[in-house]
Amino acid sequence: MPDEPKCPFQTQQFGRPVDNNQHSQTAGPRGPMLMQDVHLVEKMAHFNRERIPERVVHAKGYGAFGTFTVTNDITEYCMADLFSEVGKKTDTFARFSTVGGESGSADTARDPRGFALKFYTDQGVWDMVGNNTPIFFVRDPLKFSDFIRTQKREPQNHLQPHWRRWDFWGEVPEALHQVMFLYSDRGTPKSARFMNGYGSHTFSMYNREGVRHWVKFHFKTEQGSENFSADEAIQMAGEAPDYSTRDLFEAIEKGDFPRWRMHIQVMPEADAANYEWHPFDLTKVWPHDDYPLIEVGIFELNRNPSNYFQDVEQAAFEPGNLVEGIGLSPDRMLQNRVLSYPDAHRYRLGVNYHQVPVNQPRCPYATYHRDGAMRVDGNGGGTVDYEPNKMGGPKETGQSIEPPMPVYGDGDRYDEFTCDDKDYYGQPKMFWNKVLDEGARERLCTAISNSMADSPDFIREKMLAQFAKVHEDFADGVKSRLEQPESQPIPIA
Ligand code: NDP
Ligand code: HEM
After folding, report:
1. CA-to-CA dists, residue 467 to 150, 420, 429, angstroms
2. 151-161: string of b/e by CB count within 10 Å (b at 16+)?
3. What is the DSSP string of 228-257?
């Protein structure tokens, strides 16, 4: 049911009561409209400006507020205040999304899911902007926008043929690991409640002694993994395209609060130099046997937003929002994301996006930023607006103990990855051999061949060559399905 309005009668936006909201002002009962109808003009002008640009990726999403509770002491790795004692609680917000579709597209599309968490800590906002996969398609940000275009619409006819993605993936073998995740059963999760979340990148943590470890974040669903079959997902896209949005909202409304158990994997800083897998390569996991999961706490969602646009559409996450104790790593993708997100927010929401309540820190904060469009937080009032000063303005704390990040080498464009068969196919092999059972392998082959049905032969061939490097059965499974009459491609014009 709608909430009670703040005022019992309707007003214009500056408070004047509206005497008539049914009939525009006209010159006589059948005459033309009057320009002086301030109420009509205000109403139409506001309506024309109601839409803001949607997110260029992750446009379709839903979210909720919650609480994070520490269940295990990790202070030997991390000095962040939010992890300082078992039982400590921190307010949170989460937004879940699909990646490629527009804001009105179906929740159940085969697509990775965004898993973006905001922690309103006593020392500032920490954003954990992850996905429901521990890896990604590319490992250099130069390839990101090209990859995303393959998921979007074709320039000439605004259609979404699938051959574009297979053409790209055929040229980019590092994508195969994530491609296999995407076309496996977990490519179509039922809703956010039934999927895991991952920070995906390697981050760092440091303790009060200034000792750094590399870490990966894992949020395991306590509801269990549940997925739509490929056919169900397609059916739901037609019958209930907002299925997952509704699922989370209704669960929270009835008090069935979803939970995820947060874990970290921890690698001593020195291990990175010699670890079998490149530790800053976003297309790789760290196998659990090498770096076991260490429990940290429980992330629970327990309050629905009071207004979708205010809290969910205007939410702005950024991987660079870190708190003392959590740091970056040399992962190229992560380094780039630190720049891209605030840049996108300034375009989408405006320079003062940090003032929107869902984005605001819940701790005291004082910057020297002033002015800009839609400044509504007092703008610093009469306080001094430059630094350094002897006018009582806020000063730096001088207290950061983040250990310096060693860097070396000449500036150049390096291909630092191994780019051999083990690099491209080693972990996809582990996924095929160890994680998928026979039924899951069959479904993977079917989902891939269905998606490749519109791909011409030369694209099919380059993908089949990649699948064969994982396992002959994988290539054969896709090939035999592609040879069925219904999988013959329509020639590309
Ligand atoms: P483990 O055997 O220790 O664990 C397998 C992992 O696979 C679990 O985290 C499981 O999640 C997850 N999983 C199960 N089914 C799927 C699926 N359809 N899509 C994606 N993930 C799935 O694995 P290792 O750590 O030894 O790694 C072996 C392979 O497992 C890796 O090459 C990688 O492909 C995959 N994997 C590894 C992860 C990691 O962080 N090490 C994370 C996810 C996948 P759950 O426990 O929730 O069922
Ligand atoms: C959203 C860029 C990689 C997860 C976005 C947005 C941009 C962007 C511009 C829209 C932001 C907005 O308008 O609010 C990039 C770039 C990447 C990258 C340049 C690589 C170089 C990744 C990776 C992940 C990820 C690897 C997951 C591990 C997300 C999520 C959102 C998002 C979850 C939606 C956040 C929300 O709910 O508001 N990304 N992205 N992105 N991205 Fe990325």
Report:
1. 20, 15, 10
2. beeeeeeeeeb
3. --HHHHHHHHHH-TTHHHHHHHHHHHTT--
Helix 163-171 with 457-470: angle, nearest 10 deg: 50
How far, in Å, CA of 412 to CA of 389, rounded? 41
CA of 266 to the centre of ligand 1 (A): 17
Ligand nearest to the CA of 447: 1
Q: What is the mean pLDDT of residues 459-472?
A: 98
Ligand 1 pocket test: which of 222, 285, 437 has the largest number of ligand atoms within 8 Å of its C-beta? Answer: 285
Query: Alpha-carbon distance 475 to 464, whole Å?
Result: 5
For residue 132, give Cα distances in angstroms to 109, 188, 196, 427.
14, 11, 5, 18
Residues with CB under 6 A from ligand 2: 55-58, 61, 95, 97, 114, 116, 129-131, 136, 141, 144, 200, 315-317, 333, 336-337, 340-341, 344-345, 348
Q: Mean pLDDT across the stretch 183-187?
A: 98
List pLDDT tens digits, range 395-451: 999 988 899 998 989 999 999 899 999 999 999 999 999 999 999 999 999 999 999
The reported pTM is 0.96
Phi, psi torsion values for 178, nearest 5 degrees: -70, -35
Report ipTM for this prediction.
Answer: 0.98
For residue 404, whether the previous peptide bond is cis, meaning omega lies within 30 degrees of 0, is no
Q: How far apart are CA 331 and CA 273, in angstroms?
A: 14
